[in-house]
């Protein structure tokens, strides 16, 4: 039998350690800076996570029901969010990207605003006000066409705002907030040396 040296021996690979996360909560209300009684909107959310994150349960994106302004400038949505992920690294921690759409005076659907926030990294419930922004035309002609058509510029892929790299190139205006409640339950993060236990706030 041929002798085997150390270079020929296959060493047992290390078992890769994963952790599990379950994110829950809801999109509670939308507060717009300029709205009228009876104005209706829908909100779409998309979850953007790093390459090391695997979706185990839930939807990576969803569109809410139509909601209307009932009083003041507040639109009640109460749209649930419930997802579970597995990962071996906190890099690329999941983010929520929001796109709010409404009807303009011509009865056409147009973007109202975009926003983003990270899911919480510690246990407990978090109430977050996510600023909304809407892109602005970058030329006088674009402003004129926006006024004529009632449509504002839209992002082809709203998830790009989660990257943050080139967002400073966008000309935007503030348009209100999305108010969300979010919570985290996790298992196995301590095995990777992370302590994310925190009180409820």
Summarize the structure.
The protein has 201 residues and is mainly beta. It is 5% helix and 48% strand.
Helix content: under 10%
SS element count, helices: 1
Give the full name of the CATH homologous superfamily.
Answer: C2 domain
| Major sheet | 10 strands, antiparallel
The domain count comes to 1
- Uncertain segments of ≥5 residues (pLDDT<50)? 6-14
Say what oligomer this is: single chain
CATH topology: Immunoglobulin-like
Strands, total number = 10
CATH secondary-structure class: Mainly Beta
Query: What structural class results from the helix and strand content?
Result: mainly beta
Rg over alpha carbons: 22 Å
Distance between the termini: 67 Å
Task: Tell me about this structure.
The protein is mainly beta. 5% of the residues lie in helices and 48% in strands. The protein has 1 helix and 10 strands; from the N terminus they run βββββββββαβ. It has one helix spanning 140-149, and strands at 19-32, 40-48, 53-57, 61-63, 67-71, 74-87, 95-103, 109-118, 124-135, 172-187. Strands 1, 2, 3, 4, 5, 6, 7, 8, 9 and 10 form a 10-stranded antiparallel β-sheet that branches.
């Amino acid at each position: 039998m041929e002798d085997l040296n150390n270079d020929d021996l296959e060493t047992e690979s290390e078992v890769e350690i994963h952790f599990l996360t379950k994110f829950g909560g809801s999109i509670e209300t939308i507060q717009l800076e300029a709205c009228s009684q009876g104005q209706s909107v829908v909100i779409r959310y998309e979850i953007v996570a790093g390459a090391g994150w695997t979706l185990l349960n839930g939807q990576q994106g969803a569109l809410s029901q139509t909601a209307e302004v009932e009083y003041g400038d507040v639109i009640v949505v109460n749209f649930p969010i419930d997802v579970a992920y597995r990962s071996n690294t906190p890099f690329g921690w999941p983010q929520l990207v929001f796109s709010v759409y409404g009807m303009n005076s011509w009865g056409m659907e147009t973007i109202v605003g975009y926003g983003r926030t990270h899911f919480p990294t510690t246990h407990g419930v978090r109430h977050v006000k996510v600023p909304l922004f809407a892109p602005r035309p970058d030329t006088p002609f674009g402003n004129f066409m926006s006024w004529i058509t009632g449509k504002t510029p839209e992002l082809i892929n709203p998830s790009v705002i989660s990257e943050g790299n080139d967002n400073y190139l966008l000309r935007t205006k503030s348009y209100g907030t999305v108010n969300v409640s979010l919570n985290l339950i996790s298992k196995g993060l301590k095995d990777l040396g992370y302590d994310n236990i925190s009180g409820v706030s």
